[in-house]
Specification:
The protein has 16 helices and no strands. It has 424 residues and is mostly helical. Helix 5 packs parallel to helix 8, helix 7 runs antiparallel to helix 9 and helix 10 packs antiparallel against helix 11. The N terminus is likely disordered.
Length: 424
């Protein structure tokens, strides 16, 4: 326990822990969180525009789908790769200004895509969109952790906003393209992005003066050996979780269609797939509340165990049992994202969080390209039975990594609590 004088010193240096919160400061924090939630929805929405628009471009450019969809490859690669410099730059420059660049950069890239007179320029505009979209996760998550003090339900709701961006992208883009033309599907969200960026810069205070004051020690201090072990496990977890997440995400609609048989029409397949995805959103809210009541590493291990069980069951079931297994797996897949971010925050100093999250999301998102190729390769050789078996193996690797991470985290926390106990 801290003495009164030391506690007063801590509170003076960190306004967010003051006994009497400043109403203006609290209002400003809520405003920032609102912008970050909106940014998460936008981030996933803008990446879903071209994969929907491309269906109409087959007629416009008289090119096959396989050739046109390939233009998006650079966008998704940039989305993963550029998260690394985004996190580094935010920690050393300004997280607020990086988010301004996210909003405005995405908007201008969408305008460029709408105005592109040729396919090579369309590809260049999509690449730029991937570069700016890469800013959100390493920067926005570091900001959200700092502002909310790693409050579970705040992070969970932010995750749900991202899921809504994914879910709404195809429907809204399709409606805009049908009513106003394919270029409008880029222009309307472009206007929203730029307008939000301008409003964000005007309403959110500059944070460059706070960079030097960011904490350089984590909530849970690690020895060099423990830090190296945790980082290596963190890499294993990030890669394997990215493969599981992206493979299930991409394969789910076709998996439901194939496993339920040809008697089920596409509307029902889409509705069932959406229902399974919604289980993930509900799980994030539940996990966000649970992580405030129990140990983060233990909850992480429990959720990933459920994820492994769900994927393993899906590999050996069909019909209604398959849907139940997929719902369990999807709930755990989304739930582990929320609890994983909170666990990482406890062992990472605020001054370094942008860089640590950039590594996490770099490994997660670059695995999406591997996931698409993996599905094609495995499905061609053994159908979804083989795809699910390999996903289950990846989930098993992740489970082993999380068990190791949780065990190490529990040991470190136990030693820190023991050291903090007053002498007899």
């Amino acid at each position: 326990m801290l003495s009164d004088s030391k506690q007063a010193s801590v509170n003076a240096g960190n306004p967010m822990t003051a006994a009497t919160p400043d109403p203006h400061a609290e209002s400003h924090k809520r405003l920032q969180i609102g912008f970050l939630n909106w940014a998460h929805a936008i981030d996933h929405f803008v990446l879903g525009i071209y994969p929907t628009v491309v269906i109409g471009l087959e007629v416009v450019y008289r090119r096959p789908y396989s050739e046109l969809i390939a233009l998006a490859t650079a966008m998704f690669v940039a989305f993963g790769v550029f998260s690394l410099p985004a996190g580094w730059l935010a920690d050393r420059w300004s997280r607020r200004d990086m988010m301004v660049a996210f909003y405005v950069g995405c908007g201008l890239s969408l305008f460029a895509a709408a105005a592109a007179p040729s396919l090579p320029l369309m590809a260049a505009a999509l690449f730029a969109l991937g570069v700016f979209a890469a800013i959100y996760h390493p920067v926005g998550m570091a900001m959200l952790i700092e502002i909310s003090q790693a409050r579970g339900r705040t992070l969970a709701f932010n995750g749900v906003c991202g899921n809504l961006g994914v879910a709404l992208a195809a429907g809204i883009t399709g409606a805009l393209a049908s009513w106003l033309g394919w270029r409008a599907a880029f222009i309307v969200p472009a206007v929203l992005c730029v307008a939000t960026g301008i409003a964000y810069r005007a309403l959110v205070a500059d944070d460059r003066h706070t960079i030097a004051a960011r904490k350089k020690t984590a909530e849970i201090a690690l020895t060099p050996r423990a830090a190296i072990a945790m980082f290596l496990l963190f890499v294993v977890i990030s890669i394997s979780s990215g493969l599981v997440f992206n493979t299930v995400l991409v394969a789910l609609p076709k998996l439901v269609d194939e496993q339920l048989g040809n008697s089920v029409n596409l509307t029902i397949v889409g509705g069932l797939a959406t229902a399974v995805f919604m289980c993930g959103a509900l799980a994030q809210i539940a996990v966000g509340r649970l992580v405030e009541r129990m140990s983060g590493p233990i909850l992480f291990a429990i959720v990933v165990t459920i994820q492994f069980a769900g994927v393993a069951l899906a590999a050996h079931t069909s019909g209604a049992a398959l849907l139940i297994s997929l719902a369990i797996a999807m709930a755990a897949i989304y739930g582990q994202v929320t609890v994983g971010d909170i666990v990482v925050a406890r062992f990472t100093a605020d001054a370094w969080r942008g860089r640590i999250y950039s590594v996490r999301y770099f490994l997660n998102f670059t695995s999406s390209a591997v996931a698409v190729g993996l599905i094609a390769f495995l499905h061609d050789r053994g159908g979804f039975a083989l795809v699910l078996a390999v996903i289950a193996a990846c989930a098993g690797v992740m489970l082993a990594g999380v068990y190791g991470f949780a065990g190490l985290a529990f040991a470190v926390e136990h030693r820190q609590r023991a050291a903090a106990q007053p002498a007899e």
